[in-house]
Amino acid sequence: MTNNTKEEENQGPTPQGNIPPENENENEVSIDSLARKVQESLSLANRHKFWETQPVGQFKDLADTSLSEGPIEAPTPLSEVKQEPYNLPAQYEWITCDMDSEEMCLEVYNLLTHNYVEDDENMFRFNYSKEFLGWALRPPGYYRSWHIGVRAKSSKKLVAFITGIPARIRVHDSIVNMAEVNFLCVHKKLRSKRLAPVMIKEVTRRVHLENIWQAAYTAGVILPTPITTCQYWHRSLNPKKLIDVGFSRLGARMTMSRTIKLYKLPDQTATRGFRKMEPHDVPAVTRLLRNYLRQFAVAPDFDENDVEHWLLPKEGVVDSYLVESPETHEVTDFCSFYTLPSSILGSQNHSTLKAAYSYYNVSTKTPLVQLINDALIMAKRKDFDVFNALDVMHNESFLKELKFGPGDGKLHYYLYNYRVRHVLRPSELGLVLL
Ligand code: MYA
């Protein structure tokens, strides 16, 4: 998931941009802060009754440098994987969700729209569109059996959901077949009944049945143990609405009209040869992206089919642009963002916040700041209210300069059954999950 965050209080972006951070390491996950987490977890025995039983890095092992990188547990023979689903409380039953079906898609959409991730103050809730869900859950080689629902037997109502999709993810030099697990959701009325661990065990079982033993996932909560912790940054495109609905606040000594002026963008993009990505660009974009992602400790291993699926523009779902040199016709730069609105829970005037999320960007010739500024211009033209970006990859190099402000929540990245040598800085991460 993508965590739902809004602009942090009193920390609007600096009008001048370019101001160096007071502490260069402010976004690093320090050993000290993790050690503190270890202490907390040890002092509260059984803090993670479920997660302590799982093959994931445990807090107590964080300082142990003798543990090697790689799988925590070896695969078991397929014949030993449990053949029947886990037990649910008697009133509920498992279903496999057919995301090709309009009705099923709508049921999932309705569950998530009313019960999925909210920000800390419950002002906004993710509102993934049906089209987005269809895209996110059906990449090349997807397994229908990994789209798992729970229904109430009597009413037939969908009350819980969890999904996996297959992905090849490189961790340092190893390419690992993984499941990306996302959209874990339990209906609000069924919370805190330990249904989530059953959902997670069931998706694990179905992933194992396909002979896959590792997974990647993100969450807004701290679990044992993050491979990195990232922060969201927000760039206002429609500051008046963002302030009206409580997403951001008017900065100190700022008026509404000064704020609107501060965030104003040109109508036209600046980069010569900047255009929308088209189907014939897939091979060039794949080359550009593969070459770029090599430098990160953890990143997807995209082939042309993946790029076609994940990065070819899809109306209202994903937007991608590239720079083609007018002289050589070489594709030198690339940027993309996906569309994820949030429902606004308490406003009289507005029901939806239209948010774009920075996805994969590559700059080789166009300075990244200029490339992303062009992406902001396109997002503004498409009527987005805000443009969000994590501090992953090289994003830190444009955030302050382009007037992004820090968000109020963190996003933790995890691997299941795979230990990494040490905790990563966000800038060492080349993976964006939806
Ligand atoms: S992250 C998005 C998660 N969804 C939401 O935040 C939506 C709103 N919230 C809810 O629907 C519920 O609160 C959920 C928990 C369903 C989140 N990831 O049933 P419970 C642990 C992992 O009583 P509920 C996303 O989708 C919690 O620490 N574990 O709690 C990625 C505790 O365990 P322990 C979580 O609140 C999901 C236990 O669940 C999360 O009713 C990746 C409590 O269960 C969380 N986000 O339901 C899943 N939240 O006692 C892991 C709570 O040990 C995939 N918990 O602390 C792992 C890989 C599997 C595949 C492996 C293949 C090899």
From TrEMBL:
<dbReference type="InterPro" id="IPR000903">
    <property type="entry name" value="NMT"/>
</dbReference>
<dbReference type="InterPro" id="IPR022676">
    <property type="entry name" value="NMT_N"/>
</dbReference>
<keyword id="KW-0012">Acyltransferase</keyword>
<feature type="domain" description="Glycylpeptide N-tetradecanoyltransferase N-terminal">
    <location>
        <begin position="71"/>
        <end position="230"/>
    </location>
</feature>
<keyword id="KW-0808">Transferase</keyword>
<feature type="domain" description="Glycylpeptide N-tetradecanoyltransferase C-terminal">
    <location>
        <begin position="244"/>
        <end position="423"/>
    </location>
</feature>
<dbReference type="InterPro" id="IPR022678">
    <property type="entry name" value="NMT_CS"/>
</dbReference>
<dbReference type="Pfam" id="PF02799">
    <property type="entry name" value="NMT_C"/>
</dbReference>
<dbReference type="GO" id="GO:0005737">
    <property type="term" value="C:cytoplasm"/>
</dbReference>
<protein>
    <recommendedName>
        <fullName>Glycylpeptide N-tetradecanoyltransferase</fullName>
        <ecNumber>2.3.1.97</ecNumber>
    </recommendedName>
</protein>
<comment type="similarity">
    <text>Belongs to the NMT family.</text>
</comment>
<comment type="function">
    <text>Adds a myristoyl group to the N-terminal glycine residue of certain cellular proteins.</text>
</comment>
<feature type="region of interest" description="Disordered">
    <location>
        <begin position="1"/>
        <end position="32"/>
    </location>
</feature>
<dbReference type="Pfam" id="PF01233">
    <property type="entry name" value="NMT"/>
</dbReference>
<dbReference type="InterPro" id="IPR016181">
    <property type="entry name" value="Acyl_CoA_acyltransferase"/>
</dbReference>
<dbReference type="InterPro" id="IPR022677">
    <property type="entry name" value="NMT_C"/>
</dbReference>
<dbReference type="GO" id="GO:0004379">
    <property type="term" value="F:glycylpeptide N-tetradecanoyltransferase activity"/>
</dbReference>
